[in-house]
Prior knowledge:
Layout: E1 4-12, H1 18-28, E2 32-44, E3 47-53, H2 56-67, E4 74-77, H3 83-95, E5 101-103, H4 120-128, E6 134-135, H5 139-146, H6 154-165, E7 171-175, E8 187-193, E9 199-204, H7 214-227, H8 232-248
Parallel strand pairs: 1-2, 1-4, 4-5, 5-6, 6-7
Antiparallel strand pairs: 2-3, 7-8, 8-9
Helix pairs in contact: 1-7, 2-3, 3-4, 5-6, 7-8
Amino acid sequence: MTAIAVTVAGSDSSGGAGIQADLKTFAALGVYGASVLTALTAQNTQGVTAIHDVPADFIAAQIDAVFTDLDVAAVKIGMLSQVAAITAVAAGLKKYKAKNIVLDPVMVATSGDRLLAQEAVAALIRDLIPRALVVTPNLHEAAALTGAPLARTEQDMEAQAREILSLGPRHVLIKGGHGTDFGDGADSVDLLVGAGDVVRFSAPRIATKNTHGTGCTLSSAIAAGLATGLDLTSATRAAKDYVTAAIAAADRLHVGHGHGPLNHFYRTWRFT
Length: 272
């Protein structure tokens, strides 16, 4: 049986994040990737210059095409910039009883450009977050979803994760990659919070500016693990290891003049 995952997200014309990063991640982890495009971005390693939203009826048509033919084992959801897109995706997931949904609430790009319209936040909370097996906000997204200040401690992270958990998902993975202001800053710590114990994932913080697409890659790596039959904790641990290694190898690539991409194929590409 071929493991299949689908990414529902926006396109990054520079190839480092969004649909492109997700498909690279699926391929690197041995999973067949399908896609549903929700937006096109004119984007590179230095920023986003334009966004063209895909009409909601065409998003629905893509979902129909994928789910009526492919045996989808996991779904990664990324950029959904407008209310209509969120509504269409939520309806499609309900229609096909989609499982293993990993929701990355993409709000702001690494460059600082806003990717989610303010009025769409309420729709995301109402229509999609309750359908997710796991929601994967970074510290800035967690603060935006809860209305709280940016987390400064792991206790703050857990508290915000539990508040998001009250919105209906089964788990929340709150990512501490931006948390250089607390602890000793030497490690990047993520917390997986569900109804039971908190699972802590830690990896050495890597000094590089090439982190474009990190959040997309982590969430799609989790979806890939779920598609192959791993439980959520195991899938998250494997995804954390993969992303850490892809960041560590990022400087072997020379792409663009800003925040470059991860090295998704560090296991197979050969460099001289």
